[in-house]
């Protein structure tokens, strides 16, 4: 086990009906004026936003609203939110929604005290030093943004999708009410589960060793998702399934699944290769759901890199799918690893995720269009488990068709 620093300051308030308790908790923390950040209508249609506003009002917390966050949130709305937050003198940023709303809110929160343009943080021209506090109501378990140090924003003008990391913008409090997820469309549920599994795998295949305890936590999260996702799709109002999926999403990305696997104690475990490859897809076409893109990219990445450390993939195969090689020959090892990767991809497909990138309407000839922005974001060589060149990235993309 490598040295590590684990930091998770978020208070998680989990359970039935906690949506109606937000005002009490927000007021108790001394916040008086909240900027509500949400998407394009689902939290309005389901009544969730009204419940949050009613609870805030009952506790004397005023609310200002910023609507219209899209999937793969765009920096233009972030800039609008920064100006609104300054104008209205809010003291807490309060997203109601999934990872897109929360990431948009995070960028607003660290953009408000900054005198320059918020994109400076994503282009590495500035370092986050201050941030308004964030509270959130989670409605779409997927990104894990309710407890993570990650924030990903798109810039349509530049054709880029970039992330930044800081413990300063981890939410102070997150409200997790599994009943809010009963109305999620099957595709969103499936894409969310895929994203969670990818978050765990990025850490598990960090390329910097292993920890028996952390490995069991990581693969236990994946096994739970494999068990619960089909139940949630078949029975959308099954509380236990929805609750386990919601909590798995948080644990998959608050760094607990990577403790002891990072190259340096204060860094996040993993090279995040699959996420880097997928970000170019959803930057190229913002209609591509992040989790769905990962379903197409991550198995292709696994097939390309597993020979770098077969033992690690064999451990994954055993811990997640109970697959072992029949003997120690190279052929048997390859069969076992390939079977595990095939099982993982089959699970994604059974949930309704795409098997190939072509299902997004992307053609092989589009791959060359992804490489310049991948280079701008990750450089000529990137990755942790196996160092990848841009030619390697191209080969992975093409193998996913």
UniProtKB/TrEMBL annotation:
Keyword Transport in record: no
Q: Where is the Alcohol dehydrogenase iron-type/glycerol dehydrogenase GldA domain?
A: 9-178
Q: Name one Pfam family in it.
A: ADH_Fe_C
A GO cellular component annotation here is: cytosol
UniProtKB keywords? Oxidoreductase
- The answer to whether keyword Oxidoreductase applies is yes
MF GO annotations: alcohol dehydrogenase (NADP+) activity; butanol dehydrogenase (NAD+) activity; metal ion binding; methylglyoxal reductase (NADPH) (acetol producing) activity
Chain ranges of the Fe-containing alcohol dehydrogenase-like C-terminal domain: 189-400
Protein's recorded name: NADH-dependent alcohol dehydrogenase
